[in-house]
Amino acid sequence: MKDISQAELEVLKVLWQHSPATANQVVEALADASQWHEKTVKTLLNRLVTKGAVSFEKDGRAYLYSPVLQQSDYQLKESQSFIQRVFSGRIAPLVAGFAQHDKLAEQDIAELKQLIARWEQENKND
Amino acid sequence: MKDISQAELEVLKVLWQHSPATANQVVEALADASQWHEKTVKTLLNRLVTKGAVSFEKDGRAYLYSPVLQQSDYQLKESQSFIQRVFSGRIAPLVAGFAQHDKLAEQDIAELKQLIARWEQENKND
DNA sequence: GCTTATCGATTACAGATGTAATAGTTTGTG
DNA sequence: CACAAACTATTACATCTGTAATCGATAAGC
Questions:
Q1: What positions of strand C are covered by protein, i.e. any atom < 7 Å from a CB?
Q2: Which nucleotide has the least CA–C1' distance to B5?
Q3: Mapped to the 3 state alphabet, what secondary structure does chain A carry?
Q4: Rounded percentage of chain A residues whose pLDDT exceeds 90
Q5: Per-residue model confidence (pLDDT) at position B126
Q6: What is the pLDDT of chain B when averaged over all its residues?
Q7: Is B79 in contact with A86 (Cβ distance < 8 A)?
Q8: Nearest to A79 among B6, B90, B98 (CB)
Q9: What's the pLDDT at A126?
């Protein structure tokens, strides 16, 4: 699968939230968040199809688009490559950077604690 | 500052590890890790200078290059934009994804716990 | 049925990127 | 001092990306 560009990702996000969707539905969903012309969105949809990240089926005149690439798969793959590229594969320094610059909220901490607890629960039999 | 491309980042990493450095030192540092031609590395150095991420001072025939953009600044900025783009700004889901796919090691957990402890220490006076 | 509005497909085009090659300039060497 | 070696600067070029416009097919209205 070819890389998804940033603009393409915005289109994909719409489909992750609601699919299948017609091109026009995607255009409308993006209308407030972006200033993209309808033609631009359709080009992006097309490129996503070419890249294999999105599929469609014909529904009369219009197409119904659906994501092939799942959000969780995308997130995991991008996270890994990002952390590899920017932090040499270590995740803690990323979180540390956020902590140091006051980008962590109470909620984030709570979630992380829960996560860690669960991890330790599952890995207690080491 | 214009965006740093992935290839440019590799060059920048070398300078973060050791600077100032001549172009040839950078080329050599990259020789094993990559298959880049010397000319390619020099182009990348040049682009980094144009982008303002790297500076140089003349040392006779050769230049001595140094990073202007600091690694921690780069990491923080990229992390924020990545997490915004891919996880709508929430960091815990990223870590959760890693946990779910067994990408977290004992050491990561230990570091995260320490981080959290420190955060709570500093934010105890809420 | 013919025309027009609407879709997707194709084409456009400038800037960024990956990956070098060539040109121009400075310097060390004979 | 002239020439060659070594640097950097400039140029090259294909692909990707952002951002559309135009083309061609088709369906819907009159």
A1: 6-12, 16-22, 26-28
A2: C17
A3: CCCCCHHHHHHHHHHHHCCCECHHHHHHHHHCCCCCCHHHHHHHHHHHHHCCCEEEEEECCEEEEEECCCHHHHHHHHHHHHHHHHHCCCCHHHHHHHHHCCCCCHHHHHHHHHHHHHHHHHCCCC
A4: 82
A5: 62
A6: 93
A7: yes
A8: B98
A9: 62
For A50-82, what is each residue's pLDDT tens digit?
A: 999 999 999 888 899 999 999 999 999 999 999
Is B104's CB within 8 Å of A85's CB? Answer: no
CB contact under 8 A, A119 and B103: no
Strand (E) or helix (H) holding B57: strand B54-59
pLDDT digits (tens, 9 = 90+) for B68-103: 999 999 999 999 999 999 999 999 999 999 999 988
Q: Where does B1-90 sit in CATH, by number? A: 1.10.10.10
C1' (D13) to CA (B38) span, angstroms: 18
Residue extents of the structural domains in chain B: 1-90, 91-126
Given a cut of 90, is residue B23 above it in pLDDT? yes
The pLDDT of residue A124 is 79
